[in-house]
Amino acid sequence: xxxxxxxxxxxxxxxxxxxxxxxxxxxxxxxxxxxxxxxxxxxxxxxxxxxxxxxxxxxxxxxxxxxxxxxxxxxxxxxxxxxxxxxxxxxxxxxxxxxxxxxxxxxxxxxxxxxxxxxxxxxxxxxxxxxxxxxxxxxxxxxxxxxxxxxxxxxxxxxxxxxxxxxxxxxxxxxxxxxxxxxxxxxxxxxxxxxxxxxxxxxxxxxxxxxxxxxxxxxxxxxxxxxxxxxxxxxxxxxxxxxxxxxxxxxxxxxxxxxxxxxxxxxxxxxxxxxxxxxxxxxxxxxxxxxxxxxxxxxxxxxxxxxxxxxxxxxxxxxxxxxxxxxxxxxxxxxxxxxxxxxxxxxxxxxxxxxxxxxxxxxxxxxxxxxxxxxxxxxxxxxxxxxxxxxxxxxxxxxxxxxxxxxxxxxxxxxxxxxxxxxxxxxxxxxxxxxxxxxxxxxxxxxxxxxxxxxxxxxxxxxxxxxxxxxxxxxxxxxxxxxxxxxxxxxxxxxxxxxxxxxxxxxxxxxxxxxxxxxxxxxxxxxxxxxxxxxxxxxxxxxxxxxxxxxxxxxxxxxxxxxxxxxxxxxxxxxxxxxxxxxxxxxx
Length: 588
Ligand code: ADP
Ligand code: MG
What we know:
The protein is an alpha/beta fold. The chain folds into three domains: 10-312, ABC transporter involved in vitamin B12 uptake, BtuC (Orthogonal Bundle), CATH 1.10.3470; 335-416 and 505-588, P-loop containing nucleotide triphosphate hydrolases (Rossmann fold); 427-502, no CATH class. It contains 23 helices and 14 strands. The protein has helices at residues 3-17, 25-50, 58-76, 80-102, 109-125, 153-175, 178-185, 190-195, 200-226, 236-249, 254-279, 285-300, 304-312, 379-386, 409-414, 432-438, 448-452, 457-473, 489-501, 519-534, 546-552, 570-575, 577-587, and strands spanning 137-138, 144-145, 148-149, 228-229, 339-350, 353-364, 368-372, 394-399, 402-403, 417-419, 507-511, 538-542, 555-560, 563-568. Helix 16 crosses helix 18 (457-473). It is elongated, with a radius of gyration of 28 Å. It binds adenosine-5'-diphosphate and magnesium ion (MG).
């Protein structure tokens, strides 16, 4: 058994015996609040830490869950075991609507929008007669678990912490899955995620809705724990506090959510007792301390408190259990010589700048085409146009006869185009293996529920088997358990190629793959590319290392100032005076 599992079991046992020990009621209450907060913060880990979307509005979803429970039990006598589902349904619809509107916003607009709805719900709840306005609703019944009333802190403790642990484990399972990789992929912007076939908008909505649902469950529990609800715990203050807990605990770690919730709750209570004694009078002094702590944490411990614990736990290597997994189905390859990519009179203008001007070329199955030219010639833009990262201004792009210009990036990926980036785009905190497995996203289908319940393991083993095979091919299998962010630039580029190959492409676009590679690695790369060509793959490569290009490619297209200067075999291109003047001349 792994060390981590042992720690988890000890933690669970501790939680199980704790209410049986003569622990003062005060501490049981503290732990109950910690559990209620932790549920919300686990959602924030998913939303903010993993998917990179900051929300100050989670308290509003807690409010939706709490008020639904309170209103339905009090006004209509509905069983709490039904109101929880009603709360989830209402939250689901509300979160979906809010996500639809706000997740299209970029940058700082999303946090601002979350502040707006955090405030609105507070005032809305405070002005509805049926919900008791700012006084709220009183006399909510305690939960009753198969005849056992959970009307004491200790009784409630068990149900609450069972739910918290299940939620934590479900989210941990989710993060270690196909969907989990997609969630992490959207954090640094959507270009890479989309190029791997991830629908980045949908995955963000997923994170948003899941976080809201966790908050809603917390609200339901809260209503039956406090036995009364009023708008104040669901306002913006609390929304900020939840985010604070996430940051203190470590916004990227599920267990950090529990830690953050506990530390903040206890700190808050102690400060509320001690600060007025020290400073005299009454006031919300703890807010000032929280502000200072937050600044300190962001300055000195960006990954939160959990990072300290994490660094003391042994790193677990994933157990290789996929050796006998079923191979993923493969695309039918185009016959050798078929035109795979057909670019006709393609143009791209950035304002007044014509970055790609009337460029036409073709790539055939089983061919490597080199795209060369000085810096700023429009090579990377050409890649971005072919892969749908940027829309074309004019012209046509066809893949195996079908128009692909105008399609979203992920749709082009689905049709068999995969790529690497001039500036490596990866998930630094994930292992090399997991980064590469992201490339196989479109070859799996299991979603959130399957991942949480671990019903996706058969498919997951196949995806990881594919990732390992591509790493082996590119000569990087030895680094598969390393964190991608710890690799040198050369190996990071190779990792990107393995990731692109994981998608089983018909056309592979490599943007300066040899930059940062050592001689041996370059030769290894050239061998792999020749082998892929032999297997019928089409490759379009942008590369500055002329020796590599000339020895590898079948034909070359030379670009300068956005236009195609010449096209031909390496011999023809090398002999061309125009090319020497425009490009090779600048090399020496
Ligand atoms: P290369 O890859 O051949 O070095 P690029 O395709 O990156 O060249 O760039 C071609 C030209 O287009 C450059 O002048 C560059 O500054 C410009 N360019 C590229 N991307 C953008 C963009 N998103 N917005 C505005 N200008 C751009
Ligand atoms: Mg470039």
